[in-house]
Structure formats: C-alpha cells, structure tokens
Design brief:
Blueprint lengths: L1 H78 L1
C-alpha cells in the first residue's frame, strides 16, 4: 500500500514539474511578445505624432507665406 502511494506521489510530482516548466516557458514567450507589441505600438505612436507635427508646421508655414504674400501685394498696390 505504501509503495502504491509513493508511485502515485512520484507521478503527481513529475506531472506538476512538467506542467510548471512548460507553463514558465509559455509565460516567458507571451511576455516577450507583449514587449515586442508594445515596442511596435510605441514606434507607431511616435510616427503618427511626427506626421501630425509636420502637417501642423506645413499648415502654419502656408498661413505665414499667405500673409506675407498678402502684405507684399498690399505694399505693391500702395506703391503704385
């Protein structure tokens, strides 16, 4: 009877070790995938932000150029 309990105990220990090791490996892989996903999302966010900054700069430059052009036209009309 004691031998049967020892064999069952050894089988349970081996099973839990196997499940524990594979669980750790899978958790480690999932963690690395999450880190990689966060890295990609951060790069995407940075690029979108840079695009919007460039768009805003271009819009303000266009507005500045337009006002400068209007001022030049007014000055030219006043000179004539």
């Amino acid at each position: 009877m004691s031998l049967v309990l020892q064999i069952i105990g050894i089988l349970f220990m081996l099973t839990f070790m196997f499940v524990g090791i594979w669980g750790f490996i899978l958790a480690n892989q999932a963690y690395s995938q999450l880190r990689y996903q966060n890295y990609l999302l951060e790069k995407l966010t940075q690029n979108v932000y840079m695009l919007t900054c460039k768009k805003d700069e271009k819009a303000s430059e266009t507005a500045n150029n337009k006002t400068s052009q209007d001022e030049l036209n007014n000055n030219f009309k006043n000179d004539i």
